[in-house]
Amino acid sequence: MDITLIIREQVVEAVKNLYQAEVTKESVLLNPTRKEFDGDYTVVVFPYSKAARKRPDMIGDELGKYLVEHVELIDNYNVIKGFLNLSIGNAYWSKFLHELSNLENYGYQKPNGKKIIVEFSSPNTNKPLHLGHVRNILLGWSTSKIKEAAGFEVIKTQIINDRGVHICKSMVAWEKYANGETPASSGMKGDKLIGKYYVTYNTVAEEQEKELEDGKEPPILTEARAMLKKWEANDPDVRALWAKMNSWVYAGFDETYANLGVTFDHIDYESNTYLLGKDVINKNLEKGIFYRKDDGSVWIDLEDAKLDHKLVLRSDGTSVYMTQDIGTAQQRYEKFKMDSMAYVVGDEQNYHFKVLFEILDRLGESYASDLVHLSYGMVDLPTGKMKSRTGTVVDADDLIEEVIQEARTNSEERGALEVSEEEKLEIWRRIGLAALKYHILKVHPKKRIIFNPAESVDLQGQTGPYIQNAFVRVSAVFRKFATDLDESLLLKYTDIEQAEKDILLLIRQFPEVITSAAKNYDPSEVAHFAYDLAKTYHKFYHDISILRAETEEAKAFRLVLSKVVASVLKTAMNLLGIEMPERM
To answer: What does the pLDDT average to over 363-372?
Structure first.
């Protein structure tokens, strides 16, 4: 029973009957009533002033009387200027709670027949994943989960940058300085080992630059360029070294992804896609979409779209990143027939994606109007920016280990957990990862973040562990309450407290939160909802007795309410990639 839909439909009928005007239910402005006013839902009546030819307060009074008379669930109203505040009867809330009590995945929508590809992570194979990658990965994973909850079929993908001179830099440095060092011989994860030699390369290159005249490139860079030419010529030795070193990196990446709880449905590799797109550029030269300059390079004129002229093929016929992205998008459509595609990439690439989407539209791609660049801001530390070249980055694995250790320290300071050592480790892992993920996802993607591991694990304030603690409180209640619960008793509970109604009003919004977060590609909407629900439940838990309720009906209502809160919190946090512990 959707009370908001009922109100909207009845407002449409009221406006038609009272003022002989036609409005749609989608146009009815309906919001939860602000806490400083009496009521549960507020209808904005200003839009009906022209049809009614009356003051907004008079319209509100007439609509209020009509709704109380025609909607059994509405038992009272009040009007403040142009706002009609409606109070929903307690019988509705009891029935609503009873309906939710055994409903799994509340808030999820039915499949809508739409397919979307979400591309995220997409790292280079010359270094391990770092804090910046973590934000990208968490945004991509959470967006995928939210889109699935909103009814989409989601294909999670990444394109790994596994070729180019930057990859050859690590390869040259490993050949020259590693003495055959491997992940097995060093005890290092493969991605960290390769990252070590990427830093070595840059250190050597900088030292060589100091000894050279201006304008000359370091010899080690010349070697890297030569290695790239051999790679492109399919030199067997270079290709074998490349495959071996990349396999070490992939194993390291997979371990980090597993620690973050992330998987992919499909993976592209730039070594397989870097030649894509050239044919479509050449074919569309004849149609006038692209043009060739005197030097043989191919461009597209996008000035009429308030962009500029963009290179798509170099004068020697080789492709640029834009060419590859055009070809990769077309290849994905041929394989998956997606309706839309979202690219999770930092905001430094905003212009690139504007150009890409415009080109795909001009090429007549059916999905071009539904392409999205989920742009996000950088992640900084309290000490400042990170730099991959010098190795001054926050390694993703080290970060995960640090937040778990922070969770362990906080837990031990609060007192011993009466569970096995294995269970403690799992609890600390869940708390630590919740701290990391929530701290990043609660921020709107377009905003920059300063990440402080110690602050993220705080049990007070807007943190993942604070929300987990609300779930743990419910678990503790049900550990104490061992008898069978007669859930039908809650239907007889008539004196619903405002604190109880506040929780139900929030829960009622959850499906709309999922819809909005999916539409806006914004996991922070789900994160804020989870925090608001946890905060509201903490207040309820503090102010109102559950197990010592005044009647059995009240006790049943509060127990079921607690169970539903835990279920909705678990669902919301799952959409953020966060697991709930039973104890803390």
So the answer is: 96
Residue 316 has a CB neighbour count (10 Å cut-off) of 8
Q: Which of the four pLDDT bands, split at 50, 70 and 90, describes residue 383?
A: low
Statement: residue 447 has pLDDT above 50: yes
Residues 21 and 70 sit within 8 Å (Cβ to Cβ): no
Enter the tokens of residue 212: 């050279």
For residue 488, pLDDT over 60 is answered with yes
The two structure tokens encoding residue 432: 């630590």
Quote the percentage of the chain above a pLDDT of 90: 85
Question: What is the rounded average pLDDT of the residues 285-302?
Answer: 95
Q: Say yes or no to pLDDT of 161 above 80.
A: yes
Q: Give the up-direction half-sphere exposure of residue 25: CA atoms within 13 A in the CB hemisphere.
A: 9
**DSSP assigned state of 462:** S
Helices 350-362 and 321-336: angle between axes, nearest 10 degrees = 60
pTM: 0.92
pLDDT band for position 1 (cuts 50, 70, 90): low
Whether 524 and 143 have beta carbons less than 8 Å apart is answered as no
Residues 81-109: tens digit of each pLDDT: 899 999 999 999 999 999 999 888 899 99
Give the separation between CA 199 and CA 390, rounded to whole angstroms.
6
Q: Which two tokens stand for residue 562?
A: 């607690």
Question: What amino acid is encoded at 427 in this protein?
Answer: I
DSSP single-letter state for residue 102:
T
Give every strand in the sheet of 74-80, ordered side by side.
Answer: 30-32, 41-44, 83-88, 74-80
Mean of all residue pLDDT scores within the chain: 93
Joined together, the tokens standing for residue 48 give: 């009906």
Sort 153 into a burial class: Cβ within 10 Å, 0-12 / 13-18 / 19+.
middle
Report the amino acid identity of residue 136: N
488's CB contacts (< 8 A; 6+ apart) are: 98, 556
List phi, psi (to 5°) of 297.
-75, 155
Got the DSSP string for 329-349? HHHHHHHH--SEEEEEEEGGG
CA distance 201 to 290: 39
Pairing of strands 309-313, 449-450: unpaired
CB 325 within 8 A of CB 356: yes
489, containing H or E segment:
none
Give DSSP secondary structure letters for 364-404: T-TTGGGEEEEEE--EEBTTB--BTTTTBS-BHHHHHHHHH
Across 191-329, where does the E strand assignment appear?
Answer: 266-269, 291-292, 298-301, 309-313
Query: 337: burial class by Cβ within 10 Å (0-12, 13-18, 19+)?
Result: exposed
Q: Average pLDDT of 410-420?
A: 85
From start to end of 411-481, where are the E strands?
A: 449-450
**Distance between CA 564 and CA 584 in Å, rounded?**
20
- Alpha-carbon Rg of the chain, whole angstroms? 29
